[in-house]
Structures are given as structure tokens and as C-alpha cells.
Amino acid sequence: MLACLGYLLLIITRESSTILRYMCLTVAVCGNFSAVPPMVSWFTSNIGGHTKRGVATAAIISFGNIGGAVGGQIYRASDAPNGYVLGHAICASVLAFSSVIILLMKYLLIRENKRRDNLTAEEFAREAEGGEDLCDWHPAWRYWT
């Protein structure tokens, strides 16, 4: 949310001094880069099994790197006189959407943990068939929230 705030401030202050805009940009950058390690950690902590976790980690890093290609398309030279409002608005929108998805995911993981906590012995045994190969699908697995 810090990065989203930074981008919104950049839009609001587009006609302000360079120093103020630079401070707003610093807020956006701090929010962007400080979010990556916890996001990757949370994601990988909720994937069971070494192979599955490795592939999932590679996938999230790869998808994250697509942002570099998109960034070159949304920050156009023709938007420079207006303060790159379109690029900042797209970034703020994507970050706000990501925040909603993260909150939804947190809710769903908490709900799944509670469901697993309330399994009867028979339900647990039925869901545990397959043993360790189930990875994060095993009823004894708990998601980090």
C-alpha cells in the first residue's frame, strides 16, 4: 500500500516542485522494493514439497520480471509533459488490486487452516491418503498467514 500511496502522491503533485515529486517517488520505490522479500517468502512458505516450491518460486520471479517489459509501455514519452499520470495510475491500480488479492488469499488460507483443524479423525485419515506426496494438500499442513 505504501507504493500505491507513492504513485497517487505522484499524480496529485504532478505540477509541484521537483523536490516534492522526488520525495513522492522515493515513497513509491520504498513501497515497491520493500514488498518483494515478504511476498516471495510468504508465497514459498505456503507451497509444500521441494520440487513444487522450486518451480513455484521460479514462476513468481518470472512473472514479476514481466513488469519491466510492461513498464516500458505504460510510461510513454508523450505523457512526460503531464507528469506520466497514465503510468502512475496504472501502477497504483495494479498495486491496489494486488492488495485486495493478498487480503483475499490471507482470508482463504485462514479459512482452510480452520477447516483442517476441525477435521474428524476419519476425515483426516481420508484426506491424508497418499502421505507425503500430498505436500501442502496434506491435512496436517498449515498455511502461513
TrEMBL record:
Keywords: Membrane, Signal, Transmembrane, Transmembrane helix, Transport. It is a multi-pass membrane protein. Residues 1-18 form the signal peptide. GO terms for molecular function: transmembrane transporter activity. It is found in: Membrane. The chain crosses the membrane at residues 20-43, 55-75, 87-109. The keyword Membrane applies. GO terms for cellular component: membrane. This is Major facilitator superfamily (MFS) profile domain-containing protein.
